[in-house]
Amino acid sequence: MRSIIAEGGQSTLPTPATGAHSRLERVAAASYEQMKAALIFLSAFSPDAFDYAMDAAEHEADNPRAIGEAEPVCALCGGSVGIFVGLGLDWQHFAGDGMTAGEQQIYDPGHTPVVTWHPSEDLQ
After folding, report:
1. Which of 4, 7, 71, 98 has its CA 20 to 30 A from that of 60?
2. How confident is the model at residue 14 (pLDDT cuts 50, 70, 90)?
């Protein structure tokens, strides 16, 4: 196995593309083996992100006719949850429309969010 640190302290890993559009292009161009390797790496590097991504992907596989976007909700209480980067990278319960900046009110229901995904139309 080769080291990811080259002589002189420079990484031997390729410089990642930036931006969501570039990531989508990389996924579209990736082979099955590359996607599998990336998911294995993600599962070790960020287990929570891996679990959320797999939950969202498995939801779509369960219902291929689902229309619209999936939205994160708390499996314990059914409340809306989201990540608010200004407050850190943890999932937070919130009230509000989830779309308009500054219109959400973060609250503590007394438990840590357990994230699951539901199609938007199920929540309306």
Report:
1. 98
2. low
Burial class of residue 119, CB neighbours in 10 A (0-12, 13-18, 19+)? middle
Q: Is 55 exposed, middle or buried (0-12, 13-18, 19+ CB in 10 A)?
A: middle
Instruction: Give 76's contacts (C-beta < 8 A, 6+ positions apart).
Output: 111, 113, 114
53-103 pLDDT tens trace:
888 777 655 554 454 577 889 999 999 998 887 888 889 999 987 666 667
Reported as type and span, the H/E element at residue 94 is strand 91-95
Q: Identify the H or E element spanning 119.
A: strand 115-119
Torsion over CA: 31, 36, 41, 43 (sign): positive
Length of the chain: 124
